[in-house]
Predict the 3D structure of the following.
Amino acid sequence: METFNNKTDTRPIGVMDSGVGGLTVLKQLLSVCPNENYIYFGDTKNLPYGEKSKEELIEIVKEIFEFFKKQNVKAVVLACNTTSATAYEELKNKYPFKIYPLIQSVAKYMSADKGLLKLGVMATEATVKTKTYTKEFKKYNPDIEVMEQACPLWVPIVEKQIKNYDEKKAIFGYLKNILEFNPQKIILGCTHYPYLMDKISKYAPAELFINPAQIFARYIADDLKHNNLVNETPYGNIHYYSSANPTGFKQNAKMFLEIDETPELAEI
Ligand code: DGL
């Protein structure tokens, strides 16, 4: 008979984003924490988050947190830069589970590199408005210079699978300013953006860009261990929910992760 550490915590981990972008984070979590049970929530009804106000986003995230609370999750991963920037501070101590915000976690880990002094960030309008990337990196290294560039066309291009667009304008248009700033690294500060890497790398070397999903997943794995929240039973499963158009979600998910089931529709 198999025996497991009686401290093992089998409760699921909630992972949320406005749509399929957060799957870039889930994919990395599956490689570092494969035993965990996951509930992925794609809020396709409210997409794109990047065009919404801070107040609207706080209300939306509250509803998703209530949904996760009913599912008895042990932690919620904000696999979304926009809600980490706008809703996390307001909601962080109000729920009976751990909350992992993307930007704050990644800044903490990346700031160990004291040689990083010029950083570019491509993100949604709502994220850039808060300057959370700048504030979080400066917390650990006051000398760092951060330039944040909003890319409002990028999430619709990914989620709506738009093919006919002026690439030079839509892709290079946003990159131009940030390249002139001459950063050492550029963070893809929206979980949808890694899908555009093929296009982006036509205008700048791919090595310049960081998809923070891997760093974020490592941060979460360490923290779960540190807080005795790890599930050691080797039977992790994933359940998907979307707040609108589950079939479309399953179709779009393929960009990042092959999923077997059509998500369940969750009314929030
Ligand atoms: N993928 C999310 C992020 O990382 C939100 C994108 C959106 O819906 O605008 O910011």
Observations:
- The chain is about 40% helix and 15% strand.
- Residues 186 and 209 are 5 Å apart (CA to CA).
- Strands lie at 13-17, 38-42, 75-78, 98-101, 118-123, 145-150, 185-189, 209-210, 238-242, 264-265.
- The first strand starts at residue 13 and ends at 17.
